[in-house]
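User: New here, any thoughts?
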Amino acid sequence: MQVIIKPLEDGSYTVDGLEVRQDTNGNWVGNENMTPNQVACFQRHLIAVKEHQVSGEASYKTT
């Protein structure tokens, strides 16, 4: 299975088409329909953005 993460122009993301936004406190709020694999991939993606300046669309392979 592959998880696709796409940044949106307003700073939010989609994870397999499900929107993830930051709240006013800076916490990421995912869609209630996200699977645990999607949540884990999004968390890994945030680390990649912060530590390795990853940008643009990304895909993550899951087991």
Remarks:
- The two ends are 6 Å apart (CA to CA).
- The chain has a mean pLDDT of 95.
- Residues 8 and 29 are 15 Å apart (CA to CA).
